[in-house]
From TrEMBL:
Top-level taxon: Bacteria
Key words, A-Z: Kinase, Transferase
Transferase as UniProt keyword: yes
Protein name, entry field: Lipopolysaccharide kinase
Entry GO MF terms: kinase activity
Source taxonomy: Bacteria, Pseudomonadati, Bacteroidota, Flavobacteriia, Flavobacteriales
């Protein structure tokens, strides 16, 4: 399918990285992609990018409520994501492990990785809020991000907070239900 109908993950990652850089959104610089094919189609594909010596992933902010500069980082993350949305970029894998953070003399710099799932489309208000759902944000984190996003988007804080919270909680409940079902099956059928 990838050889004839759809671009490989590696080629998509390369193209999307170039597009992000054109929009002044940080991602490791794309160097090349390699595709191994046969008469039957794509066998393997590889994406090669610059190595970023980052300080931590966004995930660190979730697991440590007392993380240094946490509130500042959340506000800057809101700005970073707002910039994505303003450029009509819907990063479908916008999740804690796909945002690398580098501390610089001027503050913090955010880098997106794992780029092969993206849409370039008009980012409506609901799509913008929906795009935060995979970040696994706590209610406290949502308050900080929603407040900053509301300032940038020129929309009432309460409206941003309500919709962002709705999407985030729905996603977390969905994942937790799946985990519960899986653990229930293991208990019911046993694993030997």
């Amino acid at each position: 399918m990838y050889k004839w109908i759809r671009l490989s993950k590696a080629k998509r990652s390369f193209n999307y990285a170039s597009r992000l850089i054109d929009c002044d959104i940080s991602t490791p610089f794309p160097i090349a992609y390699i595709e191994e094919t046969s008469v039957f189609g794509l066998k393997n594909s590889y994406y090669i990018s610059e190595h970023i010596d980052y300080d931590f992933e966004f995930r660190a902010l979730i697991h440590n409520p007392k993380f240094p500069d946490r509130e500042l980082l959340l506000k800057q993350f809101a700005e970073f994501t707002f910039n994505l949305h303003q450029n009509n970029i819907n990063f479908l894998d916008h999740s804690p492990g796909n945002t690398l953070i580098l501390k610089t003399d001027k503050g913090y710099k955010f880098y997106l990785i794992d780029l092969n799932r993206m849409r370039f489309e008009n980012m409506t208000f609901d799509k913008r809020m929906h795009n935060f759902r995979r970040m696994w944000l706590s209610k406290t984190m949502i308050k900080v991000i929603a407040k900053k996003y509301a300032e940038l988007y020129n929309k009432p804080y309460q409206e941003i907070h309500e919709v962002m919270l709705k999407h985030s909680m729905a996603f977390q409940h969905k994942i937790n239900r799946k985990k519960l079902r899986r653990s229930g099956r293991k208990m019911q059928f046993g694993t030997k």
